[in-house]
C-alpha cells in the first residue's frame, strides 16, 4: 500500500514536470494512470481553516462580550450568530465533499485502532459543529423577537416559547463547552502526528506551496 501510494505520488510529480514543459503527449500517457492525492483538495483545506477562524471568532464573541459596553451587545450577538450560521453551511458542505472524496492516505500508515479513533473524533466534530448552530438558530427563532444575522432581519416565531428557549440554551452551552475539549484534543492529535509520530497527517491539511 505504501509502495503504491509512493509510486502514484511519483507519477503525479512526473506529470507536473511534463505539463510545465509542454510535453503533452507524455502528459496524456501519464494522465491515464489513476492518481491518488497525497493531500486534501484546495477547497477542503480552505474550508477547514476558514471554519477554524470562524469558530475562534464565534467563541471569542461570547467569551469576551463582558469586556464591551452593553450598547455593543447587539453587534456582538450579530457577529456570533453570523459566524455560527456560516459554520453550519460550511460544515454541511465539507461533509458532502468528504463523502464523495476519500481522505488522502497517511504515510506511514497508523495502527487500525488509531485510524478508528480518528474517524470517531472527526464524526463527533461534524455532529457537534452542525448541532450547535442548529440549536442556536432554533433558540433565536423561539425567542419571538426580531434578530439580525449578516445585517439582515431573520425570521422569528409569532409568540415566544420561554421554556423551550431555556432548554435549548442549556443544550447550546453544554455543546459549546464540549466543543472546546473536542477541538483541543483534535489539535493535540494533529500536532502529535506531526512532531511525535512524524507522519504526513498535518501536512495533508496545510495550504500548498506555489
Ligand atoms: C459553531 C457555532 C457556535 C458556537 C461555537 C457557539 C458558542 C456559544 C457560546 C460559547 C456561548 C456562550 C455560552 C455561555 O453563556 O456560557 C453561546 C451563546 C449563545 N449562542 Fe452560540 N454558538 C454557535 C452558534 C450559534 C448560532 C448559529 C446561534 C444563533 C443563530 C447562536 C446563538 C447563541 C445565543 C442566543 C447564545 C446566548 C447568548 C446570551 O446569553 O444571550 N449560537 N454560543
Ligand atoms: C475549530 C477548529 C477545527 C475544526 C472544526 C476542525 C475540523 C476538522 C474535521 C471535521 C476534520 C476531518 C476531515 C475529514 O473529513 O477527513 C479535520 C481534519 C483535520 N484537522 Fe481539523 N479542525 C479544527 C482545527 C484544527 C487545528 C487547530 C488543527 C491543527 C493543529 C487541525 C488539523 C487537522 C488535520 C491535520 C486534519 C486531517 C486529519 C486526518 O485526515 O486524519 N484542525 N478537522
Quick structural gist:
The protein has 210 residues and is mainly alpha-helical. Helices cover 68% and strands 3% of the residues. It has a single domain, classed as Fumarate Reductase Cytochrome B subunit, CATH 1.20.950.
Write the layout of secondary structure elements.
Blueprint: H1 2-20, H2 24-31, H3 42-63, H4 73-100, H5 112-142, E1 147-149, E2 152-154, H6 162-195
Antiparallel strand pairs: 1-2
The chain binds protoporphyrin IX containing FE (2 copies).
Residues 48, 51-52, 55, 98, 103, 118, 122, 125-126, 129, 183, 186-187, 190-191, 201-202, 204-205 line the site of one protoporphyrin IX containing FE.
Descriptive notes:
This protein is an all-alpha fold and 210 residues long. It has a single domain, classed as Fumarate Reductase Cytochrome B subunit (Up-down Bundle), CATH 1.20.950. It has a two-stranded antiparallel ribbon. A hairpin with a 2-residue loop joins strand 1 and strand 2. Helix 3 packs antiparallel against helix 4 and helix 5 packs antiparallel against helix 6. The longest helix has 34 residues. The N terminus is likely disordered. The structure holds protoporphyrin IX containing FE (2 copies).
Amino acid at each position: 500500500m505504501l509502495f503504491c501510494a509512493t509510486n502514484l505520488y511519483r507519477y503525479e510529480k512526473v506529470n507536473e514536470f511534463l505539463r510545465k514543459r509542454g510535453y503533452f503527449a507524455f502528459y496524456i500517457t501519464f494522465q491515464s494512470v489513476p492518481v491518488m492525492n497525497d493531500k486534501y483538495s484546495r477547497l477542503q483545506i480552505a474550508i477547514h481553516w476558514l471554519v477554524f477562524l470562524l469558530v475562534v471568532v464565534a467563541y471569542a464573541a461570547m467569551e469576551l462580550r463582558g469586556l464591551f459596553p452593553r450598547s455593543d451587545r447587539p453587534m456582538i450577538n450579530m457577529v456570533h450568530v453570523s459566524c455560527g450560521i456560516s459554520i453550519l453551511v460550511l460544515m454541511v458542505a465539507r461533509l458532502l465533499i468528504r463523502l464523495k472524496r476519500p481522505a488522502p492516505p497517511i504515510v506511514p500508515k497508523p495502527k487500525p485502532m488509531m485510524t478508528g479513533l480518528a474517524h470517531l473524533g472527526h464524526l463527533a466534530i461534524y455532529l457537534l459543529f452542525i448541532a450547535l448552530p442548529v440549536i442556536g438558530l432554533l433558540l433565536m427563532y423561539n425567542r419571538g423577537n426580531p434578530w439580525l444575522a449578516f445585517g439582515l432581519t431573520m425570521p422569528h416565531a409569532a409568540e415566544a416559547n420561554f421554556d423551550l428557549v431555556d432548554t435549548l440554551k442549556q443544550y447550546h452551552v453544554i455543546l459549546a463547552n464540549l466543543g472546546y475539549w473536542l477541538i483541543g484534543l483534535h489539535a493535540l492529535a494533529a500536532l502529535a502526528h506531526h512532531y511525535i509520530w512524524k507522519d504526513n497527517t498535518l501536512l495533508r491539511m496545510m495550504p500548498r506551496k506555489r
